[in-house]
Structure formats: C-alpha cells, structure tokens
Automatic annotation (TrEMBL):
It holds the Pfam family Glyco_hydro_1. It comes from Lojkania enalia. Belongs to the glycosyl hydrolase 1 family. One of its GO terms (biological process) is carbohydrate metabolic process. Residues 1-19 form the signal peptide. Keywords: Glycosidase, Hydrolase, Signal. PANTHER family: GLYCOSYL HYDROLASE (PTHR10353), LP05116P (PTHR10353:SF36). One of its GO terms (molecular function) is beta-glucosidase activity. It comes from the Eukaryota. Coiled coil: none annotated. This is Glycoside hydrolase.
C-alpha cells in the first residue's frame, strides 16, 4: 500500500513521455499537495509495473487461448412447461389494453443482448491489457465490492467469445452489444497502441458478422485506464477530452466499415457518481466532493461530442449516440411541491446529458443554477458542437420511481449545501403514497433500486419522444431484472425458472408494442445481460443473465435458458417480432 500512495504522489506534476511500450515519467522537482517536494527523474513504467504497483496478482483461468465453440447440449433445448401469465397486459396502473392483432414491431426492429468488457471478459492482464480503475476498486479498495469478487476471470468472454456469439445466434437474437476495453487498446489510456487487442476485437466483430448477429459497440463502460486517473484525475480533468477523442478515432477508424451502431459512453450519471473515488488508492483531486460528478459530466459531454464528430467525419452514416440511464418519474402526490420535485429529478437525471445533446447544447436550468457556481458555462462554440450529437435516444431504462419533495421542503434544501439531498433536492420512494404497497415486485435485495414497474413504460416512451425528439428514434439499450435470491440457489433446475424476470421481459416488450402502436418510434432493445456476470459493487451475487453462469473454479459452463429466456418466450408465444 505504501508504494501505491508513494507513486501517486510522485505522479503529481510529472511530465509524461510515452514510448513504444513503456511510459517514461520525467519530472523535475515538484511540490505535492502535502507541501513536500519530491524529485523524480526518468521513472520508466511498463504495463507490468502498473499492475504490480497498483493491483497485485490476478487470478487466471485454464482456458487461456481463443477457443472454438462447443456444441450447445441438446438437453438444454427442451421446452419447459408453460408458465402462467395474466392477460395482455397486466398491471393495475395502466388501463386494461386488449391485444390488437394488427400490432407489430417494425420489420427492422432489433432485439439483442448486452454485456460490458470488465463485467464479462476476464483475462485481466492478458495480451497487453493495462489496468483500469475497476481492477483497483475490486482488488484493493476495501469492501468496495461487497463480495470481494473481481473481474479477473469473469465469464472468460475474452477467450470464449466465439461460443458466446454462437449461442446468441442459436437463441435467434439479432444483435450483440459489447464494449471495448480502453486499456486493452491503449494500456496507458493514451500513447502506445496494443495491436493484439485490436486483433482480438477484429475477430470478435467478424465472428458476429459470420453468425449474422449485428455488432453494436460501446467505447466506454466505466473501465477508465488507471493511468489516466493517476496522471490527471481521469474524468475530473479536461485533459481527458483529447485522450478520449484519440481513443475514439483509433476505434472508429478500425471498425467503421463493419459496425453501424456505436455508443460513446455508458450511463455517465452513474460513472460520474463514482466520484469521489475512495481515498488512498488514486490520485487525490482538490475539487469538492459534491462538485466532482458535475465536473466529470462536463468533460464527458465535451468528450462525447468530440468523439461523435470524429466518427461522423469517418462515416456520416454511422449511428452514434450517448447511452443515458434513468427511470420514469411519477409524482408521489398531486401537490405542486411533488410536481417541482419531479422536474428537478428529470433535470438532474436524464436531462443533465440529454438536453445538451438533443435540445440546445446546454444544461437544463435547475442543474445550471447549481453548476454555474463552479463550472465554466459552455461557450457558444461548445454548445454548437454538443447540440445534436446523438442519432438515437439510447436509454438504459430498467424501472420507475415515485418522486417527492424532501421532508423539509425543496427551498430548505436548495438553500442549504449541507442538506443530505443537496443539490438535487428531490426524494424518491418505491412505495405508493398509501405507504404500504410497493410500485411492483422487487428484484434481488442486492439491487434495491430495481422493482418491476413495466406499467409505466408506454408513458415513459412517450415522454422521451416528446421531450428530446430523437431523429433516429428510441432504443432501450439496457433493460433486465435481477431474479430475487437467484444467487442463493445451488440447483440448476431451480435456477432455470425465472418467474419475475420472465414477467418483466414479457410485459416490458408488450408495453413497447403498445407505445409503438401509438406512434412512438422505438427501433430496438438490448436485454441486460448476455449471462450472469460481475455486477460491479455486488460482484457475482446478483444475477441478471439470460444464461446461467456458474462462476468459479469448478464449473465454467453456461446453461442456456432458451425457452425460459423471457425474450425468446415472448417472441415464440406472441410472434411479436418477425
Ligand atoms: C518492448 O518490450 C519488448 C518485450 O519486453 C522488448 O523486447 C522491446 O525491446 C521493447 N521495445 C521498446 C521500444 O522498448
Ligand atoms: C494457460 O493455462 C494452462 C492450463 O490450462 C497453463 O498450464 C498455462 O501456463 C497457461 N498459460 C498462460 C500463458 O497463462
Ligand atoms: C387495432 O389497431 C388498429 C391500428 O392501430 C386500429 O385501426 C384498430 O381499430 C384496432 N382494433 C381494435 C379492435 O382496437
Ligand atoms: C472482504 O475483504 C475484507 C478485507 O479483507 C474483509 O474484511 C471482508 O470480510 C471480506 N468480505 C467478504 C464478503 O468476504
Ligand atoms: C450511406 O448511406 C447511403 C444510403 O443508405 C448510401 O447510399 C451510402 O453509400 C452510404 N455511405 C457510406 C459512406 O457508407
Ligand atoms: C440544436 O439542434 C436542433 C436540431 O438538432 C435545432 O433544432 C436547435 O435549434 C439547436 N439549438 C441550438 C441552440 O443550437
Ligand atoms: C426521503 O424519503 C424517505 C422515505 O422514502 C424518508 O425516510 C426520508 O426521511 C426522506 N429524506 C428526506 C431528506 O426528505
Ligand atoms: C442544513 O442542513 C443540515 C443537515 O440536514 C442541518 O443540520 C442544518 O440545520 C441546515 N441548516 C439550515 C440553516 O437549515
């Protein structure tokens, strides 16, 4: 631990020169934030040194070269007994809506599955990958991951992707959305490019195309190259803008001819919310804690916009978008205070990133009145570059919440920076105003934010279309459900049946169909997730997979849930998708 902290200090003020496969830090005397002066000359850091100094040893798995797919066992293709489903659709909130046989998803509607590099790839140190902040968070930051799990091996997708893609194709799924590990392509985040990583993703993309599965690529899903965090504070510095842009340029240049759907950053509300990072593991920054997420967001918007323009300059036809997240916001009561709370919730969630990108290049007014005290306003030139930089409204929309004013009222919060809800100054609950019933069935206790609330999906889709008017329509780029207590089950037969998740997927898709029939343009959906995986702070304890993963040393076999997989079940029963 001492060496970690020491090096973090030494990096402050260092001038970084990147060579072929090592990074040379050369600095003259520099004064650290603690006031002491350190002298550093010509420290040469290899990728291996980054691992040794900041992460330590990682676990490996026996399959450590790219393998061909094994056949899908016919035993896993036995149809299950029918599950009970209520009439179309369920829910006490939405008025009962009988199915209309003329309703159809558009012919080019894509339904797919999603995964993210750190959550599924494994092979943490292999083939030149540099560490990301998540290698430190999972290995070093005490209790950051409640189970102490890491992504070292995860689903071993890095070596078994051919099998994963074969299974996606066998399920009849049209699209696979994966993310690229920035620190595989650029182990230091900038500087030398790792050709082996480029060749890996070449083959991953080619394998999708070979199986007729549409590849969709996200550039950034939270795995910030560690070196960028320690050099200048990662997303907290505007230095990240040229580095992200260069990374995007490398990736777009390589695959623009093969990949049509691109996403720049995944859920910035969440990853900007990681700031402040836990103390002692990363470079310290002087920005006050509550301001850090918004400084991150500012640099994210500038980085996203720059990347968008780079992609468009390479091929105007690419679909490039930022991935938003959030839920529908239902006023708890009809009071004016709750209505204002709902507006604050939109402004501090979706609109934070969606208004700049879709409406006018600028933050929404309620957010602006907070950030204007510490962030530079976007210049007119920046606004013009940010406005219009998403081709579709890509929304990770899992659930909904009731929104209400804080107990003290909104004004007592907005005027008091010490208020626990400052600066957002709205409160949320999963319980109706009767204070008794929940909004819907709960997911796993490890995901207290997730309840099934599919009744509000049509209203949510109308809101997205009316508010942000995305020219290319809306895609639900993540939706899914953590089947309650699945992590406690040990028998495969018990794990295979997912009653709540099945109802969630089925009714969510029915709700999309209703909205489509009412004129909302929805172009596709991506189920989260391709299989059970490393769910960040929850490790492997919560299960979102539409395939079961038995993770650990003994088993590494994925069991398909082909007919209990809610997607295929809906599609088989309802023939909703052609
Ligand atoms: C890069 O690393 C390899 C293997 O360690 C070494 O053989 C090679 O000389 C290095 N290249 C440079 C430019 O340092
Ligand atoms: C790959 O795994 C095998 C065991 O399956 C092991 O013997 C070998 O050392 C591993 N290779 C590397 C490069 O880790
Ligand atoms: C079914 O939907 C079509 C097109 O939206 C509409 O014209 C028709 O009236 C609907 N049928 C019923 C029974 O609601
Ligand atoms: C995780 O590791 C920490 C520190 O080593 C330990 O205190 C904690 O009990 C561990 N948690 C679990 C779930 O094993
Ligand atoms: C863009 O799309 C149009 C219409 O689909 C097509 O004619 C054109 O060749 C495409 N251009 C590129 C650069 O792919
Ligand atoms: C932002 O772009 C939209 C079209 O995408 C346009 O209608 C609007 O006028 C622009 N707003 C500003 C402030 O430039
Ligand atoms: C927020 O709402 C919860 C109930 O969901 C309540 O217990 C809590 O006191 C509220 N917090 C504030 C600051 O209003
Ligand atoms: C501001 O909020 C804090 C924390 O809730 C509270 O202790 C304090 O009394 C509030 N200050 C004022 C002026 O209301």
């Amino acid at each position: 631990m001492t060496s970690t902290i020491l090096l973090t200090f030494l990096l402050i003020g260092a001038r970084i020169v990147v060579c072929q496969n090592a990074t040379v830090l050369s600095a003259t005397a520099s004064t650290t934030s603690s006031g002491s002066t350190s002298f550093v000359t010509n420290i040469e850091l290899s990728v291996e040194d980054l691992w040794d100094l900041y992460v330590g040893p990682v676990s490996t798995f026996s399959i450590n070269t790219t393998v061909e797919p094994t056949p899908i066992p016919s035993s896993s293709l036995v149809p299950p007994p029918t599950l009970y489903y209520p009439p179309f659709p369920t829910g006490q909130q939405a008025p009962f809506q009988p199915k209309n046989e003329t309703w159809k998803f558009p012919a080019d509607f894509w339904y797919g599955v999603a995964g993210a590099a750190y959550q599924i790839e494994g092979a943490a140190k292999d083939e030149g990958r540099g560490p990301s902040i998540w290698d430190v968070l999972s290995h070093r930051a005490t209790n950051y991951v409640v189970t102490n799990d890491t992504g070292d091996v995860a689903d071993n997708n890095y070596y078994q992707y051919k099998e994963d893609i074969a299974r996606i194709a066998a399920l009849g799924i049209k699209a696979y959305s994966f993310t690229i590990s920035w620190s595989r392509i650029l182990p230091f985040g900038s500087g030398p490019v790792n050709e082996q990583a480029l060749r890996h993703y070449d083959d991953l993309i080619d394998t999708c195309l070979e199986y007729n599965v549409i590849p969709q690529v996200t550039l950034y899903h939270w795995d910030l190259p560690l070196f960028l965090q320690n050099s200048y504070g990662g997303w907290l510095s505007s230095k990240i803008v040229p580095d992200f842009t260069e990374y995007a340029r490398i990736v777009f240049t390589r695959w623009a001819s093969k990949v049509h759907y691109w996403f720049t950053v995944n859920e910035p509300i969440v990853f900007c919310g990681f700031y402040p990072l836990p103390e002692n593991y990363f470079k310290k920054v002087a920005i006050p804690e509550k301001q850090q997420p918004y400084v991150c967001g500012h640099n994210v918007l500038l980085s996203h916009a720059a990347a968008y323009h780079v992609g468009k300059s390479i091929n105007r036809n690419l679909s490039i978008s930022l991935k938003h997240n959030g839920g529908y916001k239902i006023p708890l009561t009809n009071s004016p205070a709750d209505a204002e709370a709902v507006q604050r919730a939109w402004d501090f969630q979706e609109s934070w990133f969606a208004d700049p990108v879709f409406i006018n290049g600028d933050y929404p007014s309620r957010l602006k009145s907070y950030v204007s005290t510490f962030l530079p306003a976007f210049s007119d030139e920046e606004k013009a570059r940010i406005n219009g930089t998403s081709d579709i409204f890509a929304h990770d929309a899992y659930t909904s919440d009731f929104i209400m004013a804080p107990d003290t009222g909104i004004e007592a919060c907005t005027s008091n920076a010490s208020h626990p809800l400052f600066p957002q100054c709205y409160n949320t609950t999963k319980t109706y105003a009767n204070n008794y019933w929940a909004i819907g069935p709960a997911g796993d206790p490890g995901t207290p934010w997730l309840y099934k609330a599919t009744d509000w999906v049509p209203a949510f889709l109308h809101y997205m279309q009316n508010t942000w008017k995305p020219r290319g329509g809306i895609a639900i780029t993540e939706f899914g459900f953590s089947e309650p207590y699945e992590g406690l089950k040990t028998e495969l037969v018990a794990i295979l049946i997912d009653p709540v998740r099945s109802a969630y997927y089925r009714e969510y898709l029915e709700a999309i169909l209703i909205a489509v029939s009412q004129g909302v343009k929805v172009v596709g959906t991506l189920a989260w997730s391709i299989y059970d995986n490393f769910e960040w702070g929850q490790g492997y304890s919560v299960k979102f997979g539409i395939q079961v993963g038995f993770l650990g040393v003994l088993f590494f076999i994925f069991f398909l849930k082909p007919f209990h997989t809610p997607l295929s079940m809906v599609f088989a029963d309802e023939e909703l998708v052609r």
